[in-house]
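2024-03-11 09:14:02 INFO worker-7 job=invfold-0412 stage=load source=structure_tokens
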């Protein structure tokens, strides 16, 4: 049974930290595909962000030509923000023959035990935790990791195992990219050229004073 990677994020915008991590981890784990899934932006998140259509368009540009990474818009197809557990259920329906490995940055994993139905997530997938510069684990997540960490993910029908990898560390965040653009700064080499061209053409993340 082959396995797929599931990498969700706001991707506002997608950058080389996401892309390089997705590629390295997918190759390391021998996955057939890594599905990159933009989520709805919850209303409490910092604004301005790009629209769902723009975030998806940038993701598509970023993964164009990759045999491993694919842009997957299944969460944006739904009217509201999706819980990860529901996305996994959707994969069980669309990809019944494939094991699921959920990619999570260590900063996001720190809150994992507060996620909706997190125990069910562990019944439906394995987790792959990606180290990220400066991010540390919370005590509950560390305890979960201690209980479930493995070195390899054998194809024996189990789920709920956790693998943690230190990939190439790129200290890039969408927050800093948005702030740089809002201040009129240069984001070259932080994200793919096609994404940079797109956000410049559409004047995304620019402060209102600059646009008018
Ligand atoms: P923001 O700054 O807007 O919070 P972000 O750069 O953290 O955005 P997200 O789209 O929120 O990006 O992240 C999606 C996933 O990618 C999360 O699991 C996050 O931990 C991981 N991730 C983001 N940036 C990096 C990076 N530079 N290295 C490794 N993992 C990353």
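2024-03-11 09:14:09 INFO worker-7 stage=emit residues=212
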């Amino acid at each position: 049974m082959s396995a797929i990677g599931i990498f969700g994020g706001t991707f506002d915008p997608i950058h080389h930290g996401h892309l390089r991590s997705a590629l390295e981890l997918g190759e390391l784990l021998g996955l057939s595909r890594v599905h990159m899934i933009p989520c709805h932006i919850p209303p409490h998140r910092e604004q301005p962000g790009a629209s769902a259509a723009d975030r998806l368009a940038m993701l598509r540009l970023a993964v164009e030509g990759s045999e491993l990474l694919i842009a997957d818009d299944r969460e944006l197809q739904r009217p509201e923000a999706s819980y990860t557990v529901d996305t996994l259920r959707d994969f069980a329906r669309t990809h019944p023959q494939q094991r699921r490995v959920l990619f999570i940055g260590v900063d996001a994993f720190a809150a994992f035990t507060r996620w909706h139905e997190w125990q069910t997530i562990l019944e439906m997938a394995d987790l792959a935790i990606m180290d990220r510069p400066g991010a540390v684990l919370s005590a509950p997540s560390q305890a979960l990791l201690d209980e479930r960490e493995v070195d390899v993910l054998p194809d024996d029908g189990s789920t709920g195992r956790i693998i943690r990898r230190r990939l190439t560390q790129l200290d890039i965040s969408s927050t800093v990219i948005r702030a740089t653009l809002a201040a009129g700064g240069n984001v070259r080499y932080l994200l793919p050229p096609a994404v940079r061209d797109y956000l410049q053409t559409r004047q995304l993340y620019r402060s209102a004073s600059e646009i008018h």
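2024-03-11 09:14:09 INFO worker-7 stage=report msg="The chain has a mean pLDDT of 93."
2024-03-11 09:14:10 INFO worker-7 job finished
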